[in-house]
Amino acid sequence: MSRSTPQMKRSLAALAALLLLVQAALSGCALGKKEWPQPQQSEDTFTLEIMAAERTDTCLLLTIAVGGAARRLYRASIQYEIVGGGDGEGCVGCPFVPRDAVHFTRNQGAFDLVGNTLKLSLCTLEPDKQYRFRVAGKNDLPALPLTYTDVFVTTQ
Questions:
Q1: Which of UniProt's keywords are assigned here (predicted)?
Q2: Does residue 50 sit within a domain?
Q3: What is the band of 31 on the pLDDT scale with cuts at 50, 70, 90?
Q4: Is the separation of the CB atoms in 59 and 121 below 8 Å?
């Protein structure tokens, strides 16, 4: 059996130290909790409230107050359903199930947001029908859920 020399001992010690250093560096990368940044509630979210709704024949004109971060409102959708007794129609006392929706995005001319007031119009209604509707707002931060107004019923 051969004896180890001091130079060989130093080489083995240096190799062992290098392996420990590499292991510490690699395991250090896996330490800690990593997650996506969360939106700041006060800076990144908004609320929607219908301030005025006017039904004129086949059109529904809405004025909506956008509270909070109005600049984050990317898309607004008018969700609606006909109220009646026919197939595919809802009833006033039933849960709201929107059967159709019209979407307005920030870069469209019909998306009329001035300050904290949004104006939308829907002109495809049947004049002799009653409708239930609400507005849904999509934030430009994809992790945030949709924001909804209350459900309202039009008059004929």
A1: Lipoprotein
A2: yes
A3: low
A4: yes
